[in-house]
Write the structure tokens for this entry.
Amino acid sequence: MSLFDADVPGLPDSSGPLAARLRPRDLDELVGQRHLLAAGSPLRRLVEGGGMTSVVLWGPPGTGKTTLAHIVSRASRRRFRELSAVTAGVKDVRAVVDEARDTLSMSGVRTVLFIDEVHRFTRTQQDALLPSVEKGWVTLVAATTENPFFSVVSPLLSRSLLLTLEPLTDADIVELIERAVRDPRGYGGAVELTGEAREHLVRLAGGDARRALTALEAGAEAVLEGAKRSVAATGSDGDGGVPGPGPVPLGLELLERAVDRAAVRYDREGDQHYDVVSAFIKSMRGGDVDAALHYLARMLEAGEDPRFVARRMVILASEDIGMADPGALGVAVSAAQALELVGLPEARLALGQAVIHLTLAPKSNAVITAMDAAAADVRAGRLGPVPSHLRDAHYRGATRLGHGAGYQYPHDHPEGVVRQQYAPDVLARSDYYRPSGHGFERRAADRVRFLRGVLRGQPSSPSAPPAGDEG
């Protein structure tokens, strides 16, 4: 458990990691999340000491959840306590709550309790917080990377304001990197990034501030150490111990070596974006599982929005697989939901599993062909009135209009299907769905022939399955 007073907050440790040294000291230094910090917003009021509403901060790693809590600790003029859900137990929670209640009753000073990774708390631990939140003994600030509707108990969530933090934009990451290079808490101008190195850091970050600063620190420390060795060898030195007359350049090649991660040549706004996505889809459509996994990894490593990738996979599941493997759509949707639930990097496994399934699945474009053909007829005006026996007969007067007259209920017939027209007259013989002979659709084709034969009064094929058989 980490438990500390922040009435007299200390400055970041100058010897600590770069991300810790550069942690914003107030809202003006915060990068991103401006949608949560408008004048009068609950979070700003909490920071300024005027709000009492408990909040749950939900967002991906490196978006500022812990930073916001520390800004609250320095600016709210309240007692600040912090618990880590990784190490704290029910006893720790109750100790903080009892202390907060006693302090409020004796001095009128309220306590802000920050719980990091609250999703790791058990239901019992979360329930222990309810009385203190409900009675106002503490103002809770809880941070989670997981969907709180699954990971936070409903009573606690209903008593808190849910604030969703968004991944930092590329512009946010650039601002953060430039600050780290210039700020005395960072490198104070001792390092100068090349354009390629800066772009690589943005790609590596993927909207995560901590990841960007960690990668920058690895590269900067490596280049500065190299420069110091060079100074020691030559016996010359620059001002203040900084090697040379100016900043040391940090280029792409050295940065790659320092972070052990090669740059992925990929422009999310340009041709590379469309080319790689196109190759990704065509590899899955064509059955090349190794190429499909390569392009998936290439996009994720380059910082492509994983939700975009998941959406394309959902589309492919119907457009290129369809009824040849009816389960493919469920696999793709499940991968997209897993992404929303756990986020990257863990969700890359769910995406990879879905890519493998979709690539290996039998293929059919019968679904999109059927939908396009049906839509073309509608756009061409081939509509026709709904047959009278299919019209709604539940309202008063419908019977006098002949609605529902002659309708045959399929379940009253042994085979579960009966000769009866469902389409408008103008479309009575239109066959939109034409199953392929691949995978499950091979059996679906037999079922379609059987049903059309009964519905239209045509003799069924000898190979047709009995009614009610799934194929």
